[in-house]
Amino acid sequence: MLQEEEDLSLTIAHIVQKLKGSRLYSQLERQAWVSLQKPEIKLESLKEDIKEFFKISGWEKKLQNAVYSELTVFPLPRHPAAPPEHLKEPLVYMRKAQGSWEKRILKSLNSMCTELSIPLARKRPVVEQKELLNKWNEMGTDEPDLSLFRPVYAPKDFLEVLINLRNPNYENGDHLNLKTHLGLIQVPLKVKYISELKEFFIELSLNTGQLGIDDATQVPPELFENEHVRLGQKVLAEQDSAAAQQYIRQGSPTALRAELWALILNVSNQPEDLLYYEQLKSNVIQHDLLVDSLIYKDVKLTASNDDYYFVFEDYLYQVLLCFSRDTSVLGHFAYNSASPPKSYIRGVIPFHGFSMYVAPLCFLYHEPSKLYQIFREMYVRFFFRLHSISSHPSGIVSLCLLFETLLQTHLPQLFYHLREIGAQPLRISFKWMVRAFSGYLATDQLLLLWDRILGYNSLEILAVLAAAVFAFRAVNLMEVTSLAAAEAVLADLSTLKVMPLLQIFLFATIT
Amino acid sequence: MLIGQLAVRLQGLLGGVVFPAWDSRTTEDFYAAAASAMSRVQVPCHIKGAVALQVGDVRTVQGRPGVLVIDVTFPTAGPFELQEITFKNYYTAFLSIRVRQVGSPNQSSNKWITCLRDYCLMPNPHNEEGAQDYVSLYKHQMLCDMDKVLELRLILRQPSPLWLNFTLEELQFFQHGPQSPSSAFTKWLSHPAPYEQPALLLQQALPDPDKVSSEVQQMWMLTEMIRANRTTARIGRFDVDGCYDLNLLSYT
Mean pLDDT across chain A, nearest whole number? Predict the structure, then answer.
């Protein structure tokens, strides 16, 4: 009990320290000074009166949201003896694997630089700056010669690295034993069993209403949908992050989604944020980075070719170019097992498909600065885990292992058959999970899925959905005889409805 | 002379305190403050190599030992009161600790008592969870009083056959330090220099000592205020000149 009290006071001190220099702190101070002029505030009970004032005026809610956001995103302060690398990633062999993977990426980037004789960064001449400023809203129209550029890596390269991940202290003997991994991932991380998943995703169960199922045209809206929308409006009126996160587990009505996501991610459109975005924009205009060309190439290859997202091409440039210059993103490297390269380039090197993280958000937000902030928050909370090697339960390694375990446990015949024909299921589902299904599902279904990611603050639902898709197409998959045929069966996911699949797999499959 | 020294030393102190580094330093400072409040002092110890306990002959029996015993003695320190044990786990699943203390005078030999029984370090011995964590064990978690510890025996268990090795690393033992509230005092302030002859000083034009000492006190208060208000929030934007002129990224 003593230990818990100490931990709690440590957490409180940590959060207070983090919030002390923030804008919210100075606003609260200013509000407290202003409130002294009000007649309700009496000198004898100054502290209580000011607290009451904060409660009534809604400032307490804002503080609550900020604290909740800190608790959700940042891991708790570490043991005093633990070095900072331990906070990023406690397992030493994973840190090493991440380090060597990063070295490979940097080598590839450097060799591309020297081959094409392009500097990593250069200052733009004034003429070019003016031109870019004029064209800022239509950067998609110019067609620079990008034929010599190639993406630094693709998801399948990353999969090869994960397949070769080995714990040196683990018995990787040749003989089969109790814990031999029949799938591709060979590290014994903790993943949830289906009973634990059922508990974790309890709001997705059969007797709870869901948007994505219970708002279908055949279902009368009085049963669930109207009430849910009313509740959503109430949550937004209260401006409570924690309540919004709980609410969105059952899905978000389309009209309220943009505001709900902004509330959960604690993103508000303050003038300082707008100013920050403008400053990033001016950084883009003044300097040209090699990473920009990679971003251009990626957008042209992926989002521009997608039926749903090609209209947002210009927005994507505006967001991603600024993202590559944002210093505040560096803050997340404290708990990300990756490290930024040693230079002034903001540490995230885009890979093939990176722009697909931003594309679905363009449906919700039309103002570039708000879109940018939402994307940045989503990235530093969730998406970074999908392309760095770590033992975190939402990290891509755990997701892959969860997927394979679910498939082995609940569809053993299918798993065995696919393995025999040389079509390991992870080879097909990896690209879905790395992109968080963006570009594979229909947009409305994708947004329903991302609602749940925000609601549960975890990416495990991606692995569950991947297994559910395999379960859905199991009959067809049992008849294929090669990897290419299996890929063909699972090539088109755009007609799938996400929520029924998840519900059936979690709650209606006989195990 | 003394005042000159004072000014120079405080200059150094100010340089170190007014512009603190971010994140890691501030968390460490919190812990250092907490530690100094708890005032623990590390006890030098001698850790004997781990001995595996196994049934049967080690060479002929297949399979790895699941129990290791580590003996810790304190040859230089006498019987002390154990406050805290910290270590880094390496794939140990359960930990038991037995202690031998100075017994009561009428007992002829000191007995071994179990003070921690099957403390779980890895919730699932087959998985990696908790396998490489840093752990602290405190006096209040022990089953018996740890007033006069002579020796400790750590019994490590790892029932899973999947791991090749298991042990505990970076073992450290702490006892109660002296109750000194102001450990932030530098040594030279608590041991003032002997009184020096002021006669030589009067020949040079030095400032009034009272004025200087009051100004120095004010400076000290300012630094304490700034230190108390330290935050981890970023200032915002700053550009480093020439940072965009680069051609290659370094690997290290």
Answer: 86
Distance from CA of A395 to the nearest CA of B (A): 14
Q: For A450-489, write each residue's pLDDT tens digit.
A: 999 999 999 999 999 999 999 999 999 999 999 999 999 9
- A279, A116 contact by CB (below 8 A): no
Q: Is A63 inside a domain boundary?
A: yes
Contacts of B171 in chain A (CB under 8 A): none
Task: Give CA–CA dist B71/B48, Å, rounded.
Answer: 5
- Cβ–Cβ of A122/B245 closer than 8 Å? yes
Whether residue A36 is contained in a domain is answered as: yes
Per-residue confidence in pLDDT tens, chain B, 252 aa: 444 454 444 444 433 333 333 333 444 444 544 544 457 788 888 888 888 887 776 666 667 788 999 999 888 877 888 888 999 999 999 999 999 888 766 555 678 889 999 999 999 998 888 899 999 998 888 888 888 888 899 999 999 888 888 999 999 998 887 765 555 555 555 555 556 545 544 545 677 788 888 888 888 888 887 777 666 555 555 454 444 555 555 554
Q: Taking CB atoms and an 8 Å cutoff, what residues of chain A touch B30? A: 10, 13-14, 17, 77
The answer as to whether A279 is a domain residue is no
- Kindly determine whether residue B233 and residue A84, on different chains, have CB atoms separated by under 8 Å: no
Partner residues linked to A66 by β-bridges: none
**B157 in any annotated domain:** yes
Q: Which pair of tokens denotes residue A257? A: 């989604």
Return the beta strands (E) in B8-145 as ranges: 40-42, 46-47, 51-53, 67-73, 82-90, 94-101, 112-120, 134-138
Within-domain flag for A265: no
A18 touches B at CB < 8 Å: yes
Residue A509 — very low, low, confident or very high, per pLDDT cuts 50/70/90? Answer: confident
Q: Provide the pLDDT for residue B8.
A: 46
B59: left (phi over 0), alpha (psi -120 to 50) or beta: alpha
The pLDDT value given to residue B34: 52
Cβ contact B132–A91 (<8 Å): yes
d(CA A149, CA A352): 12
Domain that holds residue B164: 48-54+64-175
CB–CB contact B161 A77 (8 Å)? no
Beta bridge partners of B96: B155
**Could you tell me the maximum CA-CA distance found in chain A, to the nearest angstrom?**
82
Domain region containing A21: 1-77
Which of chain B's residues have a Cβ under 8 Å away from the Cβ of A287? 244
Locus of tokens 């959905």: A465
Residue of A70, A324, A343 for testing the chain B interface, max B β-carbons within 10 Å: A343
Cα(A9)–Cα(A42) distance, integer angstroms: 30
User: Which residue pairs from B23-28 have beta carbons closer than 8 angstroms and sit at least 24 positions apart in sequence?
Assistant: B23/A334, B23/B232, B24/A84, B26/A17, B26/B230, B26/B232, B27/A14, B27/A77, B27/A78, B28/A80
Domain CATH number, residue B167: 2.60.120.260
The better pLDDT of the pair A69, B179 is held by A69
At A392-437, the pLDDT tens digits run 999 999 999 999 999 999 999 999 999 999 999 999 999 999 999 9
CB contact under 8 A, A171 and B30: no
Sequence-separated (6 or more) residues with CB below 8 Å from residue B89: B121, B122, B130, B131, B132, B133, B134, B135, B168, B169
Beta carbons within 8 Å of A354's beta carbon, 6+ residues apart: A295, A298, A320
CA distance A423 to A416: 10
Does some domain include residue B86?
A: yes
Report if pTM > 0.90.
Answer: no
CA distance B24 to chain A (A): 7
Q: Best of A176, A329, A344, A345 to disrupt the B interface by mutation (most B CBs within 10 Å)?
A: A344
Number of domains composing chain A? 1
CB contact under 8 A, B252 and A342: yes
